[in-house]
Specification:
Neuraminidase, 5-stranded mixed beta sheet, mainly beta
């Protein structure tokens, strides 16, 4: 089924930097973002004909030569394992072989996966939950799609699709491979059938490989970019050579839905794709620009120009940070440089109102407080406004946050609010951030209802030392106390049985985002998260895990 898409242009700033400028470097860039949002890039050095690797240290790029034994490094593909160590598959043009490099604490280990000859072009690598590498690649001699993985202490290679011709020369399949491993550990591969001009898809099962044609309309399937929604459902971006357009296919469970992403000019070369919603980076050959597209509903695609200086954007590779923000590595043809772009996201949001409580007393004084979280990927500050109203406003105050680093939080304290002894008894409190150039203005407000009762007049002063929130598949905790205390987060199933301890630390300050989805020992379902401070349970929340 083919559907048509609506395209909207959105304007956001991108931070663009050159990673490596020594010689002609940057083709076959492949990007990984680790759990600490550190970028890792594998790429080919054309000048020296070597495989290189770059990692950002926080202030500079640390660049290494991984392999210089012959002409090596074309068709590089990088994946990070559970310890954020890089694995790279690549082509050895001198030997005509598929090679593999893995970084260890003591250096790089290099192996010949398939000695060939004529194998290892269009490689794609992923690692499974056990850090076992899986590689798809093209056999140029047989004109076929091949797959390799490690079993025990040796590599095993399999020919998956030879095109069905009587001899290898009759068909050519397996170019532009893109591989991802699902939660079970089975590889999925998207690739191009040159002979028939089709986009094809292969999936490993316990009974063998299942191969199907995804799109056969025209010459389609070049520059495939596969990702798996929920590490299970295939979504594929690819280039339509007949119409020079970027297309997108997604599996519904019963059929492939095929969309045109963009049809303006010659666009879609070197497309890279990652699931968050769906984020694409690609080369606009008409304008020689790097562009980016994103969709949340697959009915409307938003796109923007990332880099337009010179001929830029070939060999793109896109990944998301832990907060879901895009990072792109790519090649600058004009200058022969490896470049890297990150979208500048500005987002400051209130996460919890800690004071006053839901119930207050007439003729009493409270100090309004709220936690503010910097969800930006840059350091920012903003104004925070607190309003309390009944039928009409009864209180308002504005404070300025200090400049906050990404993922930092602060407990904002406003001027005291005195509840009138003879005034209204029902209030609404509203706290909202005011950030210039806010990327997500719809998440800037948090509210709560307050009920006033007759009772003894009090003056509240002690702040709540933590903010504790849960979302689908994750737990977020910020803790800030005047002294070291024991902080513990534990997960319980619906029967009340303790499943695991998520966190246990002696600390006075702590900020932690815990992903439950990545914990392979947890099944989907409803759980309870309990927070204890110094052994005393202070709050319990429900959390839903969906895998």
């Amino acid at each position: 089924m083919v559907t048509w898409m609506v395209l909207l242009l959105v304007g956001q700033a991108w931070d663009v930097q050159s990673v490596d400028t020594l010689g002609d470097v940057g083709p076959f860039a492949s990007l990984g973002i680790d759990k600490n949002n550190v970028p890792h890039i594998a790429y080919y050095d054309v000048t020296n004909q070597v495989l290189k690797y770059a990692v950002f240290t926080g202030s500079v790029w640390n660049i290494e030569v991984v392999d210089n034994d012959g002409d090596v490094g074309m068709f590089a593909s990088l994946a990070l394992d559970n310890n954020d160590m890089p694995h790279i598959s690549y082509f050895d043009a001198t030997a005509g072989a598929l090679k593999y490099a893995r970084k260890t604490p003591t250096g790089w280990e290099i192996a010949i996966v398939d000695p060939g000859p004529g194998v290892g072009l269009f490689t794609s690598i992923d690692v499974d939950a056990g850090d076992i590498p899986h590689i798809s690649y093209f056999d140029g001699v047989r004109g076929s799609l091949k797959y390799a993985t490690i079993l025990g202490d040796h590599w095993v290679t399999v020919e998956i699709d030879s095109g069905g011709g009587p001899t290898p020369a009759d068909t050519v399949v397996g170019l532009y491979t893109s591989l991802r491993v699902d939660t079970i550990g089975f590889p999925h591969i998207a690739y191009y059938d040159v002979t028939n001009g089709d986009l094809k898809y292969a999936k490993a099962t316990s009974g063998g490989w299942i191969i199907e044609k995804v799109d056969t309309l025209g010459d389609v399937g070049l520059c495939t970019a596969l990702d798996l929604r929920n590490r299970e459902i295939p979504y594929i971006a690819y280039y339509d050579a007949t119409n020079m357009d970027l297309k997108f296919a997604r599996w519904t469970g019963t059929e492939w839905i095929i969309n045109y992403v963009i049809q303006t000019g010659d666009v879609g070369w070197d497309v890279s794709h990652v699931i968050g919603s769906s984020h694409l980076s690609y080369y606009d050959a008409t304008n020689a620009d790097l562009e980016y597209a994103v969709t949340n509903d697959y009915l409307t695609w938003h796109y923007e120009w990332v880099d337009t200086t010179g001929d830029v954007g070939q060999f793109t590779s896109i990944k998301l940070s832990t907060l879901g923000y895009p990072h792109i590595a790519y090649y600058d043809v004009t200058n022969g440089d490896l470049k890297y772009a990150t979208k500048i996201i500005k987002d400051m949001l209130p996460t919890q109102i800690t004071s006053p409580p839901d119930t207050v007393y007439l003729d009493s004084t409270y100090i309004p407080r709220a936690w503010i979280f910097n969800k930006s990927n840059v350091a920012v500050s903003c104004s925070v406004r607190c309003e309390i109203s009944s039928v009409v406003p009864v209180y308002q105050d504005v404070k300025e946050t200090p400049t906050m680093a990404p993922e930092d939080s602060i407990l904002m304290e406003f001027m005291p609010w005195t509840v009138s002894a003879s005034g209204p008894t029902v209030f609404n409190m509203r706290v909202y951030t005011m950030l210039p150039d806010d990327s997500f203005p719809n998440n800037d407000t948090i509210t709560k209802n307050i009920q006033a009762l007759s009772g003894p007049g009090i003056v509240e002063s002690n702040p709540t030392p933590y903010t504790f929130s849960v979302h689908e598949n994750e737990v977020i905790l910020f803790f800030n106390a005047s002294s070291v205390q024991n902080v513990e987060l534990s997960l319980y199933d619906i029967s009340g049985k303790k499943v695991t301890t998520l966190l246990s630390e002696n600390t006075s300050t702590l900020k932690r985002r815990i992903s439950l989805k990545e914990n392979t020992s947890l099944a989907s379902g409803l759980y309870f998260v309990r927070l204890k401070i110094n052994g005393k349970g202070v709050e319990t929340k429900k959390v839903l895990i969906i895998k």
